[in-house]
Amino acid sequence: MSQRTRILSIDGGGIRGMIPALVLAELEKRAGKPVADLFDLVAGTSTGGILACGLTIPGAGGRPRYAANELIALYEQEGPNIFDRSLLKRITSLEGIIDERYPTHPLQSILGRYFGKARLREALTRVLVTAYEIERRTPWFFRSERAKADAGYDFPMAEVALATSAAPTYFEPAKLAVPGAPTDYFALIDGGVFAVNPGMCAWAEARALGLPDDTVVLSLGTGSLIRRIPYDEAKDWGLIQWAQPILDVVFDGSSDTVDYQLGQVIGEERRFRLQTTLETASDDMDDASEENLRNLRLEGENLIERESAQLDAVVELLV
Questions:
Q1: Pairing with 60, which of 98, 164, 231, 258 sits 20 to 30 Å away (CA)?
Q2: pLDDT (0 to 100) of residue 95
Q3: Residue 89's pLDDT is what?
Q4: What is the pLDDT of residue 86?
């Protein structure tokens, strides 16, 4: 490990996770090393948690199973299957009003195929993935360092990825059996409800683990929302009308707040935030249409071009 603590933080954002996946593929290309070798700690929420697991899961010879560019396919090829609803599901859920929008099985099956039987303790570098436990009413952190020390917290990576991405109204909560105690369980939802940007959680984890104080954080967003909530409409909204927009408000607002906090704590020169405003792509977390997937790729490629100098500066500090 270097004398500098190198942290990667990846926001939540559903299908918009394609944007940080593209940035990480470019980072690996410029650095000539996999993410697991570039960072001492990788943190993710929701789609970012899936990427955190995917980038640190061991493959042949103890090397990462996936390069970042291979995980782009998780969005382009699997996204339409994950975010697909039958007509019956649309009717029985009243478009997500009385039941989750999407069945969990396609996502669960895809994660099982990508992650197999790999467990959290096997991560190639330290990993922190967020979720929220709804029965115990507490934030929940999947921590690879704890998994190594306590078998009761060593979950399969596929289950970690499922729990962190169980976004309310989109998917049902994940029910994870406690390893070694199958009659006990955790009921978990998307960590984005409290940490859509897990950067500060990662910084606190690094301090708790006693990693060097000299810290560099690369924080990756999934696109800033620009869709207005008109006052004349919102002033008369009740519970049903606010149910979906309030999630977007919480997610977007908390992400920006954490970015500000990180800049204050470690200094702007050590915090690199790569984020883009969604000018052409939809800000919906579940728009996996062919047109929007193409637009998300363009948004990511434009971000890389626009922030090329910043990426080079990050590589210089990491390698």
A1: 164
A2: 54
A3: 47
A4: 56
Burial grade of 6 (CB within 10 A; 0-12, 13-18, 19 or more)? buried
Distance separating alpha carbons of residues 264 and 219, to the nearest angstrom: 14
Active site residues: 46, 190
Q: Residue 30 and residue 91: Cα distance in Å, rounded?
A: 48
Name the one residue in this structure whose structure tokens are 């199958």.
Answer: 182
The H or E element containing residue 242 is: helix 239-266
- Supply the pLDDT for residue 87: 43
Please, is 243 exposed, middle or buried when counting C-beta atoms within 10 Å of its C-beta (0-12, 13-18, 19+)?
A: middle
Ranges of residues in the chain with a pLDDT under 70 are 1-2, 85-99
Q: What is the rounded distance in angstroms from the CA atom of residue 85 to the CA atom of residue 81?
A: 9
**Burial of residue 3 (number of CB atoms within 10 Å: 0-12, 13-18, 19+):** exposed
Q: What is the pLDDT of residue 93?
A: 47
